[in-house]
Structure formats: C-alpha cells, structure tokens
Structures
1.
Amino acid sequence: MEATDQFDVVGFGSTVVTMWSGIRYANPANKAEALAYLEGGGLVLIGTTATYPALQYPFSHYTTTMLSVFLVTDGAPTASTGTTAEIIRDTPVWLSTWPSCDFTAVGVQAIGTLETFLQQLSAACDGLYISR
C-alpha cells in the first residue's frame, strides 16, 4: 500500500469489530500499528461467523471509495447473520457502488462447503480466491 492509500482492519466472529473507528492513511506508522495488532492476536475472534455483516460493514460505514476488499476467513458463514446465497447475491451489488474495487477472498484451511462458497463468492464479484 502507498502512503496515500487508506485502510482499516475489520474482524468478525459473533460480532463485527474494527481496529480503528474509521479508515486511516497507509503511512508507515499506521501500517506498523496494524501489523503489530494482527501479529499480537488483536483479531482472535470466536463464536459464530458473521460474514454478511462483516462484508456489509465497509459499504455502510466508509464514504471513501475503496480499491480493494479482502475477506479472510477460516469459517463458513453463520446462516442467522446471512446465508451464503444472500452473501453471494448482495456482495457484488455493494461492490458495484465502488466501480474500481477489487475483491479477494482468502480461505484459511478452507475445504468442502466453505471453499465452494468462497469460490462462488469470488466468481460473483469478478474477484480472486486464494486458498491458504
């Protein structure tokens, strides 16, 4: 990321949490703070997997046009917070509000239905799927 780029870290388990109360410039100090936060376990979340509200969050809270959205998950979405069909249907619509926004889904040890979901979501968003 360039120093003029902006970012936030949005985590999700049973709830959606953010590292900051809004986006910040990707200057060296903010990138170092985010890296230390992630490496220090700042986003160790447990419980259900609130994928739908986590994906919806940047589109409903940030007015700045984003260039990239990354979804990194090790768990299948919990239906009570949004079914896989709803996520696949709605995420491309949200992305269309930011015309040049790229989407990448990263599945951490994703197998079976989680991997299939992430592949379908990435395809629906004209995005990229990465398996880790």
Note: Residues 18 and 71 are 14 Å apart (CA to CA).
2.
Amino acid sequence: MSSTTSTVTVISDVIAVIIMLIIYPTARASYGGHTENASSAGGGKKQFEGKIFLSFIYLVILTAVFEGMSYAFSYMITESSDMISATAHIAREISSTLVYFTWLIYVNYRLYHKKDYIKRNLFIYLIPLALCFAATIGADVATVLSDLSDEYGVYAVIFLFIFHFVRFFYFVASVVVIRRFKKQNGHLTFFRPELFYIPILICVLGTLFTPFSIEAFMFSISIALFYIASERENRYIDAETGLYTDDYIECMEQLIKKGELSPCSAVVFKINDIEDIKSFSGILGGMLPENCEMIRRGKDEVIVFTPLDNRGPVLLLMDDVCTDTGASGRVVMRQKDETGSEFVKRCQDM
C-alpha cells in the first residue's frame, strides 16, 4: 500500500471525526431537550430517536479511528504494526456493519415510531450481525489451526465476503421497509433516505475504482445531512406532543400538489383538560388508520386529516377516540368539487 493511499485515507478519517465532533454537542442538546417530556408522545419519540442518532455518531467515530489505524499501521513494515493494522481492520469491519444495522433500526423507528415494531423484527435483524461475529471468531480459529498461515488468503476473503453480504442485507432490508411504508402511506414527509444512500453509493464506487477508503468520511457526510434535515423538520414539530404545528399545513399543500397526499375527511378534537393533551396525542396515534396527518392547533385542539371518504367510519373513529380520551370532536368531510388544498385550508380556517 502506497504512502499516498494511507495519507489520503487517514486525512479523510480525521475530517470525518471532526465533522462528528462538531455535530455532537448540538445534536445531544437538541435531542436531550426532550428528556424532560419523555412521558409525553413527543418527548418519548424524540428521546429514543435521539439515542439512535447519537449511536450513529459514536459508530462513525469508531469506524474512522479504526480505518485510520488500519491504513496508517499497514504502511509500517514491522510485525507488530501488521498485527495492529489487521486488528484495526477487523474492528473497522465490525463498526461499519453496526452503522448499517443502526441505519435499519433508525429507518424502522423513524417511519413507524413504534418500539414494538422494532422488537418484533429485532431477532431477524440480529441474525446477520451474529453471523459477522461468528465469521470473525471462525477466521481467527481457522488461522490458528492452519499454523498461522493463510497463503492464499482464503480465510480473509470469506471473512470480508460475509461482512459485505451482511451490510448488503441491511441496506436492502432498509429499502424494503421504506418502499413498504411509502406504499402504505403515500409519502415520507421529511424523511430523506437518499441522504444516506447517495453517500454510500459514492463510497462503494470509490472503493471499487480507487485505492482509497472513504467509508467513514461518507458516513459523516450522510449523518451531517440527516442532522440538517432533522433540524428543518423540528420547526414543524410541537415539542410537547410530537404532533405537527399549524406551519405544517404548507408542507401538506405541497404533498397534495405532488399527489402524495389526498385528505378526504378531518376530525377536529377539542381536549377538555389541557393537562391531558400529552397523553391524548399518544393514544390518538395508536388508534388512527394509515396515511393520517395530526396537527395541533392552539393549546387545546388537534386536527386529524384522514383518507377516509365515507362519513360512517370517520364518525366511528371520532367516537372511539372521544370515548377513550374524554375529548369532544366534530367531523368535516371534503366536498365533491373541493380540491385537497382547499379542503385543508377550510379546516384550518374553521
């Protein structure tokens, strides 16, 4: 390995660590600010999402450190440096795979906001990860049994193949989850998965056609872009309940124009006891059908836009929510000659 390759890779890793250290304090403060509201729907969701996001930062830093060590020590021609380089390379493969694993968990929770949904699939997600650790142990044992010699690099190839396969599995699994959610709900709102996929594609192409390894650097770029996007979304989120604010109406109108959202009815809930609005938003979220939008208006009102175009099911939904929460509500139906944007605007003006 040339000194240029090692130098470029190490520099990219240093930049990756710097980017993560710049983001970390503000990200921790942003997500940590919801800790006091952890019992509310908004606080609990943001707190758990924050733990996942901060895990990204930790893992990217570890990947960058191990990747830098692997390349830096590989340039030194000594027995001890070779051992350090090889150990760092294994650690880097593990931390990199954990980034993909965390991404899959993040996608599931970011879209569905349900820990139970993750728990149901966690065993399946952990099997490939267990395969990686088994491959690491197996490669070490096989090397020892073959008198510390692997002349043709067979064990190393198998080891790397398993890790690349597992990362590919997590990548594909995340795409499947996103496509399924979009098919069910019509849109992803603020979620931008391309901010992860495009840097990863650049990383793969760079690995295939250049001698440099820029994986940690591209990870850091992806996390930085996601953080910027999440800060933009936070402007439309009510910190107390986790529901959208009135400002989100503008985003809804854009989704309607794109054909990704088609509200046909709305229920305007009036919360009789303002102290109950935290628990109300949590109960409401678990009772709604797919492709609904919840917006908090003022201190004691929540508007739910639904795709239901029949008054009967909408009334049944309203009655169920009011019975379980003690709130009062009224139903608003979209008129035949009314566009989605006009309907949303009419509900907002009521």
Note: The beta strands are 265-270, 293-297, 301-306, 328-333.
